[in-house]
Amino acid sequence: MKKLTESMTTCDLTSRRSFLKALATAPLLALTDAGATRVFASPRSGADMILTNCNLITMDDNKPLARAMAIKGANIVGIGSHDEMSQFIDSKTTVLDLHQESVSPGLIDAHSHLIAFGQMQLKFVILRPPQVNSFETLRKVLAKAAVSRPKGEWIVGRGFRDFREGRFPTRHDLDDAVPNNPLLIIHWSGQFGIANTMALKKADLLKADLKDPYGSAYLRGKDKLPNGILVHYPAIYSVYNPPMEDHEQIEAASWAMKLFAEQGITCVHDNFVPAQKAQTYLEMAQRSELPIRIRVYPYIPNLERCKLLLSKVKRYQAPMLRLQGVKLAIDGYPLMYKPLDKNREHLVQPMHPRDQFEAIIKAIHDADYQVDVHAVGDKAVDMTLDCFLKVCGNSAECRRRRHRMEHFPFRNLDSIGRAADYGVPVCSQPEMITVRGDELLAKADRNLVNTITPIATFIKEGAMICFGADVPAFPSYLPLDSVRTAMSRKTEKGKQLDPSERISFMEGLRCHTINAAYSGFDEHDIGSLEVGKKADFVVWNKDLTKMSSAADLSGLKPEATFVDGKMVYESENGYVLRRKKHL
Ligand SMILES: [Zn+2]
Fold first, then answer.
1. How far is the CA of 474 from the centre of ligand 1 (A)?
2. Distance from the CA of 561 to the center of ligand 1, in angstroms?
3. Does residue 191 fall inside a structural domain?
4. What is the whole-number distance in angstroms between the Cα of residue 33 and the centre of ligand 1?
5. Which of 179, 348, 391, 458 is the S-S candidate for 365 at Cβ 3.0 to 4.6 Å?
6. Domain end: 260, 295, 323, which one?
7. Is 359 part of a structural domain of the chain?
8. What pTM, to 2 d.p., does this model score?
9. pLDDT at residue 40 tops 60
10. Rounded to an integer, what distance in angstroms lies between the CA atom of residue 409 and that of residue 331?
11. Distance 385 CA to ligand 1 centre (A)
12. Same domain, 212 and 252
């Protein structure tokens, strides 16, 4: 398989498949508009499918509710009452009587990593709590995994969070459990790793004069040698970057996309894509094997790699797959004005000095791509907003370019106001409350923790807030978990965080549909049910207008998921047949 960047420099690219266009000079907005081509002309006036007798939650402010929808080819051609839609019925139209079931736009997950999710679930040792919550439980799980592997074979685990011991283990804590295999374990967030001694030796990193890679660190013991703790991706991947064969990547992507489609997701923004993984999406798109839409944001670790990517990559866009922007990170453990946790200050490392950070953002901006920054701490968020404003020049230009931010969990009213003013889409993970709420309550400023992921404030201030599960960092890929947690604001142990930040179900649905579409320049095509848009929608088993508390979501699930008017998931065989109305 050719690397993505190589293949994209070849001039045969456009001839390989018609949907793949090398548009090296088109500005991003023009590019997005090009993707919104709508075809209405047809020799047949009838629709291919009519949904009738249903509660359509459209997410279109001009017509929020409707009873019937007509679909022709990949597009919605009519929305309204059954009588209004009857004009689209001819002898070839399939009419589905949905018996009052609810229909929403297809859900959009604006931040997840599908191939990495598949890789973790299918290939790695899972180290999530509560199974792993102490050095003893960690060692037990790792030792068990080592028994079935030949000596010398790499073992990779991921998902550990906190340990009873109150610190990360070092290589010395892991060597006994896995003495004969090189071992790399990765924190749930993906930001930290721990290698055993054999792994460090194998990577030739067990030396006192070792230099830290850019934006990254090898923590040291008293003996000045690396103690096995690795801060940020460059240090982690310098030890070992678990390889995946082409077929394994396709298997991982297919596995993840199937799970997502079952949850009503019709589009995913994959915001951490190395070139090889982007190539997998490209090849799947060329073979029409993408059941859901993918928007790709390749990750770059430094200015040099950023420039290399931008010099080689050519724009590609198609309804199912688009290179949307470029991703970078400014922090891992939150970069704060006041330390979040004094015991973890040694883990706080800005990934770039300010001048480099700004130069990277400017390079992406100048190349007409959407910048996508991972920023968690309040200081990291402000640095990002400062740079966006500086490269754009003014807030109107910021709004036009929509450079976006991932995570932004702390409630700083000034920063939220600026995000709203600059039109910066913010992709939030309400599951932060479940996953980190209890841990942060125990160690950080209670007022600060009480207001994490302040979705109601983002909405009130007019910021463009959307949701993404961020698997495999976060454990749950379920979009309804994000919505439920945003509605309840309860931690894993059931503690209530600031109830004034709770939102309604419909606000949560908006974050997973039209707002998420906006964050990826897709709002002209998807994210709401409107005439002329793509027929991406979900049929639900319960009435969505009755979801007034988080508890109401229990048992709520999709009956069927459609992309481009075609069913990509149905809850049981024959769903469509059962709903087919005989005319
Ligand atoms: Zn992520």
1. 8
2. 25
3. yes
4. 27
5. 391
6. 323
7. no
8. 0.90
9. no
10. 13
11. 19
12. no
Pair 138, 190 in one domain:
yes
> Dmax over Cα atoms in the chain, in whole Å?
81
In angstroms, what is the span from residue 138 Cα to ligand 1's centroid? 24
Residue 138 and residue 215 share a domain:
yes
Average pLDDT value over all residues in the chain:
90
Ligand 1 centroid to residue 112 C-alpha, Å: 6
Domain that holds residue 234: 125-239
Peptide bond preceding 499: is omega within 30 degrees of 0, i.e. cis?
Answer: no
Among the candidates 323, 354, 369, a domain finishes at: 323
Strands in 101-234 per DSSP E: 102-105, 107-112, 125-126, 155-160, 183-187, 192-195, 217-220, 226-231
Confidence of residue 317 (pLDDT cuts 50, 70, 90): confident
| Integer Cα distance of 537 and 559 in angstroms | 11
Whether the pLDDT of residue 61 is over 90: the answer is yes
What is the mean pLDDT of the segment spanning 302-323? 92
CA 123 to centroid of ligand 1, rounded, Å:
19
215 and 149 within one domain: yes
Interior angle at CA 558, CA 555 and CA 559, nearest 5: 110
Give domain status of residue 231, yes or no.
Answer: yes
Give distance in angstroms: CA of 484 to centre of ligand 1: 20
Asked whether the CA dihedral 114, 556, 320, 246 is positive or negative, the reply is positive
Q: Which two tokens stand for residue 479?
A: 């979009």
Range with the lowest mean pLDDT among 42-51, 225-234, 284-293, 405-414?
42-51
The protein residues having their C-beta less than 5 angstroms from ligand 1 (an ion) are: 470
Q: How many domains does the chain have?
A: 3
- What is the band of 547 on the pLDDT scale with cuts at 50, 70, 90? very high
Q: How far is the CA of 271 from the centre of ligand 1 (A)?
A: 6
Q: Which residues make Cβ contacts (< 8 Å) with residue 393, sequence separation at least 6?
A: none
**pLDDT for 15:** 30
pLDDT digits (tens, 9 = 90+) for 485-532: 999 999 999 999 999 999 999 999 999 999 999 999 999 999 999 999
Is 309 found in the same domain as 262? Answer: yes
Q: How far is the CA of 329 from the centre of ligand 1 (A)?
A: 10
How far, in Å, is the centroid of ligand 1 from the Cα of 564?
27
Residue 192 lies in a domain: yes
Reduced to 3 states (helix: H, G, I; strand: E, B; else coil), residue 125 is strand
pLDDT tens digits for range 93-142: 999 999 999 999 999 999 999 999 999 998 999 999 999 999 999 999 99
201 and 273 belong to one structural domain: no
> For residue 429, how far is its CA from the centre of ligand 1 (angstroms)?
10
What is the predicted pLDDT for the residue at 349?
81
Beta strands in 91-138 (DSSP E): 94-97, 102-105, 107-112, 125-126
* CATH number (domain holding residue 96): 2.30.40.10
The answer on 138 and 74 residing in a single domain is no
Q: Report the CATH number that the domain containing residue 205 is assigned in CATH.
A: 3.10.310.70
172: left (phi over 0), alpha (psi -120 to 50) or beta: alpha
Query: Does one domain contain both 170 and 92?
Result: no
pLDDT given for residue 346 in this prediction: 81
